[in-house]
Design a protein that fits this description.
Blueprint: E1 5-6, H1 7-14, E2 23-28, E3 30-31, E4 43-44, H2 48-69, E5 76-81, H3 89-104, E6 111-116, H4 123-132, E7 136-142, H5 146-152, H6 158-169, E8 174-181, H7 191-200, E9 205-210, H8 218-224, H9 233-249, E10 253-256, E11 259-261, H10 268-274, E12 279-282, E13 287-292, E14 295-301, H11 305-311, E15 314-320, H12 323-334, E16 341-342, H13 343-350, H14 354-368, E17 371-374, E18 377-380, H15 382-386, H16 388-400
Parallel strand pairs: 2-5, 2-12, 3-4, 5-6, 6-7, 7-8, 8-9
Antiparallel strand pairs: 1-15, 9-11, 10-11, 13-14, 14-15, 16-18, 17-18
Helix pairs in contact: 2-3, 2-11, 3-4, 12-16, 14-16
Bound molecules: iron/sulfur cluster.
Length: 410
């Protein structure tokens, strides 16, 4: 069994490297039931006592980590899951007020997002969002076709979704919607038609994720048994093209592989994550990437709700990320976004220019028309984003052959 790290061990790795802006993610690991396709870490059917223990622990760890890191500011906060709003009102209020109290010590975040599932949205919980200063809600719709939602084991049907949209309309903050594309064959739901409906709700940000069949999920077993047939590559490419066209014609920018926003509606928290800005994740299974004494460090909190509740500050993985691996990640994350890898920051952190690192590979991409590269950095075209994975293979080989110095991060 792997040794677990306690607060003292994490302190020893991170101490003395604080004083920079840190984004905060709080993982709420509870769901009413497990959707058939999902492999995120969450538990279904937890009782109120466990949830209460979790809320107190999360607030405690958050406070301890802030004291350790002494952030210069907390620009963004994201409370995700799981299903954060499955918490009963009393605990929902306690969690969000507790997060606010602890964050506000370090200033007011520019953006605070909370993920919610439609069937657990109600007026009282939405009132709390307004009171604590949440600025953005991410609504997990996933689809509007009843057959598809049922097949996926989602807790909300069309009626619950419409009701949630109605309640959130009176709230005044920004709303983002998640949808799933690449649905099994034979589903009557059409993502583009659903987008028309979503647009009618006045939403300025939509994330469209491709449904993936993960090992160990119910959907995985259904596909293996032939009960569900997934679409082929050509169908997927055709659907994706139609989705991108739909957004483009309505002024939405594809600012990341799966994320579309009207100008000014982008999720700042996720942008900071893709830019590899320091990031603190608290709650079972949550990951942090933070500057440590030996270089960038990644730590993951224990993937066990019971243990987290019993012990709080307990981590199960720690990794000092070597310069090559971190540089590769820098490109993997940055190139997912429309803004790409920004040149000036790259030079400051890595001591060399993007062009010097990418060299022939970057020039080849530019020749193919899938990227633009210059002093200001490197960014992919729309088509480049579609073939991101194959482009990243070129970079991986290139980076592993290079001598890279320690990054001056953040
Ligand atoms: S609600 Fe979200 S986190 Fe929970 S099982 Fe469904 S997809 Fe996974």
């Amino acid at each position: 069994m792997k040794p677990f790290l306690d607060m003292e061990s994490v302190r020893a790795i991170l101490e003395g490297r604080g004083g920079y802006p840190v984004s905060v993610y709080v993982h709420v690991p509870f769901c009413a039931r497990r959707c058939r396709y999902c492999d995120f870490f969450s538990v279904a059917g937890a009782g109120e006592r466990v949830m209460e223990g979790y809320v107190e622990r999360v607030l405690e760890v958050l406070e301890q980590m802030f004291v350790l890191l002494r952030p210069s500011e907390i620009p963004t906060v994201y409370v995700g899951g799981g299903t954060p709003n499955v918490l009963p009102l009393r605990l929902w209020e306690r969690l969000l007020t507790g997060v606010r109290e602890r964050v506000r010590v370090w200033g007011r975040p520019v953006e605070w997002t909370v993920e919610v599932n439609p069937e657990w949205v109600d007026e009282e919980k939405v009132r709390v969002l307004g009171e604590v200063g949440v600025t953005r809600v991410s609504l997990g719709v996933q689809g509007l076709d009843e057959g598809f939602l049922r097949l996926m084991g989602r807790g909300a049907g069309r009626r619950e979704v419409e009701r949630a949209v109605e309640v959130l309309a009176g709230w005044g903050g920004r709303v983002s919607v998640d949808l799933l594309a690449g649905r099994p064959r034979g589903m009557s739901g059409d993502v583009v038609r659903e987008l028309e409906e979503v647009r009618g709700w006045g939403v300025g940000h939509v994330s469209v994720y491709g449904l993936t069949v993960e090992e160990g999920t119910v959907l995985g077993a259904m596909v293996r048994r032939g009960e569900v047939v997934m679409p082929g590559e050509e169908e997927l490419a055709g659907e994706w093209e139609a989705i991108c066209r739909w957004f483009g014609e309505r002024g939405f920018v594809r600012y990341e592989v799966s994320n579309f926003a009207l100008p000014g509606e982008e999720c700042l928290h996720n942008l900071r994550y893709w830019r590899l800005e320091p990031y603190l994740g608290v709650g079972p299974s949550a990951v942090s990437t933070l500057p440590g004494k030996e270089g960038p460090v990644r730590v993951r909190q224990v993937r066990d709700v019971g243990r987290f509740v019993a012990e709080g500050g307990v981590w199960e993985e720690v990794e000092v990320i070597g310069p090559q691996a971190f540089l590769l990640e820098w490109f993997m994350m940055g190139l997912r976004t429309r803004e790409g890898v920004e040149g000036e920051r790259f030079r400051r952190v890595w001591g060399v220019g993007v062009e010097e690192v990418l060299g022939e590979v970057g020039r080849r991409w530019c020749g193919w028309g899938v990227a633009e590269m210059g002093e200001s950095g490197v960014r992919l075209s729309e088509h480049g984003l579609d073939i991101l994975d194959s482009l990243l293979k070129d970079i991986a080989i290139l980076i592993w052959e290079k001598q890279i110095g320690k990054p001056l991060w953040p």
